[in-house]
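User: Hey, quick favor. My workstation is busy. Could you predict this chain's structure for me?
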Amino acid sequence: MLKSPLPEHLRKDWLLHFSGFITWSVICYLSLVNLDFGQTFVLKLLAFIIFYLSFAWIVFSDKRAESKINKRLLVVEVVTVLLLISSDIYNVAAILLVLIATQLPSMFTRKKALLLMFFITVAHFTIVYDGSFISGFFQVIIYFMLQVFGFSAIETILREAKAKEELAAINQELLATRFMLKASSKKQERLRISRDLHDAIGHQLTALSLNLEVAKHKVSEEFKPLLQENLQLAKTLLSNVRQVVKEMREEEQIDLVSSLENLINQLPNCQLTVKSSIDINSLQLKQQLMFCLQEGVSNALRHGKANLFTLACEKMGNSLVINLSDNGTVTNKNNENFGSGLAGMNERLIDFSGKVDLIVNDSGFTLKIQVEDCYD
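Assistant: No problem, here it is.
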């Protein structure tokens, strides 16, 4: 299947952008159709082209990424439209102000956008004022309200899109949390059963074996073969119980890579690439590292809306370095939102001389974990 070269936000809102282009085309035609070719015609055509190029640049850029260039181009659009209004004999160029208003929600808060539209309207009124306040007021108030309408419509669309993204991120985080709770509950239950087998049944079978051993030396010869058979049966049963406990505890050994893969496979549209993996000796360290990696995935979903993860591990002697990278959106390079999470991870790894850092780069985030491996 061929993939469209257009950005995703354009594919979704193509009708909105197309209507903007048609509006510009109609206004341009009405403003130039009755003009003779000459200096005025060329200047007006150039102004319309400059406006549309600025408008197209902002539309084709991702609205989620704030850009100083977009704001400068917006100023160019405002100045261009005001100049067109000042020489507009058909009173249609002011409709382009509505197109400007539709771009404001992606750049400014509602308060700043309304203030900007107010100042544009004041400038518009100053241009069209011909000595009659009432006439000029009603002429500009209509366009002002159209600007407010256009701004509100786009703001609602963007707000709904943001809410949908936040809901998807929350849903992914809930899935990750459910997976972690399910895995933790399963491990706790298996650990409880293995401890009960070892502590209760194992100790009782040991006591039974000792009692049978003592009884074997105190009974008559005719009962000794039966006691010996029962003693051997008790020892075999004790050996089987110990073997079951051993196997259950061996099953509890954590494989970081497979556990992380199982977690990310539960999340929609998320992928994990494993560049390298390592063997870790300490079971307790594996458990704490898994908690840290799970929290790292959860934070990447919540704060960065990531969906691509890369795991790379390196071991030199007992020193381990684990890097979990993602493609999350970088909105805060000061890491202010991650202070408590990093503090919690460092507390988990304090017994292993651990250190956790969050590295921010242009492509996303990297959770870097440095610890010392040991034997339990």
